[in-house]
Amino acid sequence: MVSFSRLTTSSAASLLCLVWLLTISSPASASFTCTSAATCDAIIDYTLPNSTTFNALKKLFQVKNLRSLLGVNNLPMTTPADQKLPANQTIKIPFPCLCRNGTGIANKRPTYTVIPDDFLSHIVTDIFAGLFTVQELQTVNNISNPNLIQPGDKLWIPLPCSCDDVGGEKVVHYGRLVATGNTIEGIAQRYNVSQDTLLRLNRLASPKELLAGSVLDIPLKACQSTVSNTSLDYPLLVPNDTYVFTAANCVTCKCDSANNWTLQCQPSQIKSSLWKTCPSMQCQGLDNFYIGNVTSSDCNSTACTYAGYSNQTIFTTSTQLTCPAADNNSSGMRPGTESWNIILVAIHLVFLSALYLR
Ligand SMILES: *[C@@H]1O[C@H](CO)[C@@H](O)[C@H](O)[C@H]1NC(C)=O
Ligand SMILES: *[C@@H]1O[C@H](CO)[C@@H](O)[C@H](O)[C@H]1NC(C)=O
Ligand SMILES: *[C@@H]1O[C@H](CO)[C@@H](O)[C@H](O)[C@H]1NC(C)=O
Ligand SMILES: *[C@@H]1O[C@H](CO)[C@@H](O)[C@H](O)[C@H]1NC(C)=O
Ligand SMILES: *[C@@H]1O[C@H](CO)[C@@H](O)[C@H](O)[C@H]1NC(C)=O
Ligand SMILES: *[C@@H]1O[C@H](CO)[C@@H](O)[C@H](O)[C@H]1NC(C)=O
Ligand SMILES: *[C@@H]1O[C@H](CO)[C@@H](O)[C@H](O)[C@H]1NC(C)=O
Ligand SMILES: *[C@@H]1O[C@H](CO)[C@@H](O)[C@H](O)[C@H]1NC(C)=O
Ligand SMILES: *[C@@H]1O[C@H](CO)[C@@H](O)[C@H](O)[C@H]1NC(C)=O
Ligand SMILES: *[C@@H]1O[C@H](CO)[C@@H](O)[C@H](O)[C@H]1NC(C)=O
Ligand SMILES: *[C@@H]1O[C@H](CO)[C@@H](O)[C@H](O)[C@H]1NC(C)=O
Ligand SMILES: *[C@@H]1O[C@H](CO)[C@@H](O)[C@H](O)[C@H]1NC(C)=O
């Protein structure tokens, strides 16, 4: 009798322990595969451990400017930097990615400066919400004895990322936090990638292996742009549902599926980071025809599109827009003259850019 009761107690305890482990297990952090020898821009989800502000986030992740933080979250430019963000809200963080040894990690930014009484698991769990493991933090910073971190030490924060093409296409890799109830099927549908691709990228054997709290590598489709390969921002990869500032802040571009995945750019009206005033953004030889403008006419219009920049000039391209034959009878949407036009027609490049005329 005695041994029987002891047995049940101990198996009950181990069962409880198992249940506890299953519920409390911290985010399973897995590094992302990255085989291209490259650097690129990446995005990761961060669930706020405490209430905070965009300014504090910008500082913690060393995001270059508030605009890029707002841009990846597709929030209005007018959002105040000190707006209160509640704990548990998930914010997308943009950061530079470096691929080495088959995996991608943040390219030496962000770094974290150790303060008194810090310890590694606190930094990983309470500050960076478990986006990487203590082991990864130790390895990348060559910390053999975790008790020997000193206030003032600068730690390289190994956020997971990748720069690899997916399905032959350039994409932006997004480390998406898996929420309770998420399924591979649902996520695949939302980002229009095949389930096989998602499983392969994340080295999951089956959809059942998806864990809430883990960070999933999602290849975000980026808009097609006409940026020249000689441009300083080549290849301008703007992913779905985001906007960026480029050409030293002179141009702003956004991407969404509503425009047939064509990048929509226009002059930005903000101060340039390079020039006193922005160079001309006019398409060659055409009066009052600037980046983002489209001539209005049925099924035969021309768009002035952004084609990149150098430290001296901003390139433009005139793009001929024609209606696809199948759309002959459709009347609803036709290009207007305002900026951010909805262009639902095929695009043929006309090599008129200032760049090529030199
Ligand atoms: C945040 O989420 C955790 C667990 O999901 C919960 O325990 C906590 O109360 C939440 N905090 C706030 C401020 O909502
Ligand atoms: C890459 O891996 C090799 C062997 O696995 C190792 O010697 C080298 O230090 C690693 N490089 C980096 C930058 O981690
Ligand atoms: C959140 O608050 C906890 C408790 O005060 C603190 O330990 C932790 O460092 C804070 N995290 C961040 C990112 O400020
Ligand atoms: C890591 O640190 C150890 C001891 O401080 C040192 O011998 C070793 O060269 C370091 N390795 C790297 C790759 O920096
Ligand atoms: C693009 O983003 C929108 C808004 O977040 C989302 O509804 C849509 O599913 C996304 N599409 C793809 C292909 O990523
Ligand atoms: C999803 O991708 C397929 C093939 O890549 C494409 O044909 C389809 O139009 C896309 N669907 C959406 C809603 O973007
Ligand atoms: C840039 O594009 C041109 C044609 O568009 C091509 O001939 C050239 O090889 C490309 N250069 C690079 C460095 O990719
Ligand atoms: C489109 O309009 C331009 C002038 O605006 C004209 O030269 C060209 O022939 C037209 N193209 C078609 C296909 O109608
Ligand atoms: C532009 O960049 C080139 C090298 O890339 C440099 O030689 C030149 O001085 C720069 N010009 C200006 C105006 O900054
Ligand atoms: C398109 O419509 C016009 C008149 O609306 C007609 O003349 C033309 O033949 C149509 N073209 C096609 C390819 O259906
Ligand atoms: C052309 O673009 C400029 C700059 O975005 C804008 O101010 C202007 O209103 C546009 N012109 C037309 C005719 O759409
Ligand atoms: C969308 O863009 C693709 C390639 O850029 C083009 O082949 C296709 O015809 C476009 N579709 C429509 C409806 O304009």
UniProtKB/TrEMBL annotation:
<feature type="domain" description="LysM">
    <location>
        <begin position="174"/>
        <end position="218"/>
    </location>
</feature>
<keyword id="KW-0732">Signal</keyword>
<protein>
    <recommendedName>
        <fullName>LysM domain-containing protein</fullName>
    </recommendedName>
</protein>
<keyword id="KW-0812">Transmembrane</keyword>
<dbReference type="Pfam" id="PF01476">
    <property type="entry name" value="LysM"/>
</dbReference>
<feature type="domain" description="LysM">
    <location>
        <begin position="110"/>
        <end position="157"/>
    </location>
</feature>
<dbReference type="InterPro" id="IPR036779">
    <property type="entry name" value="LysM_dom_sf"/>
</dbReference>
<keyword id="KW-0472">Membrane</keyword>
<keyword id="KW-1133">Transmembrane helix</keyword>
<feature type="transmembrane region" description="Helical">
    <location>
        <begin position="339"/>
        <end position="357"/>
    </location>
</feature>
<feature type="signal peptide">
    <location>
        <begin position="1"/>
        <end position="30"/>
    </location>
</feature>
<dbReference type="GO" id="GO:0008061">
    <property type="term" value="F:chitin binding"/>
</dbReference>
<dbReference type="InterPro" id="IPR018392">
    <property type="entry name" value="LysM"/>
</dbReference>
<dbReference type="GO" id="GO:0005886">
    <property type="term" value="C:plasma membrane"/>
</dbReference>
